[in-house]
Structures are given as C-alpha cells and as structure tokens.
Write a structure and sequence with these properties.
This protein is mainly α. It is built from two helices and no strands.
Length: 63
C-alpha cells in the first residue's frame, strides 16, 4: 500500500496556474482584437467625427 507523496504547496500553485490560464483564454476571446481591427475601428470613428463636424453651422457670436 504505497501512496504517491505530493507536495501540497506545489499542487496548490499548479492548480492556481491552470485557473489563471483558463481566465487568460477567456479574456483573449473576449477582448483580443488584431491591430488591423483596431485600426479599422479608429478609422471609422474618425470618418464619422469628420462627417459630423462638417455639418455644423458656425453662428457669429453676439458681442
């Protein structure tokens, strides 16, 4: 009746590493975007902002 001897500290740290990796994988799926996707979003936002600014009317200040 020989049992495998394990170090509890090492087992606890190994379990924590696995949990951390699972969280990291979920975050990569949720928040990970490629550089091209980020640039596309920025370009679209800039274009929309320019279009909005072009439609503004300049009113002379009363003074």
């Amino acid at each position: 009746m020989a049992a495998d001897i394990i170090n509890l500290r090492q087992a606890r740290k190994a379990k924590a590493r696995v949990e951390k990796e699972k969280t990291a994988d979920q975050n990569r799926v949720s928040f990970g975007r490629t550089k091209a996707e980020k640039q596309l979003t920025k370009a679209l936002n800039d274009k929309a902002e320019r279009a909005l600014d072009q439609g503004k009317l300049d009113r002379p200040e009363k003074g």
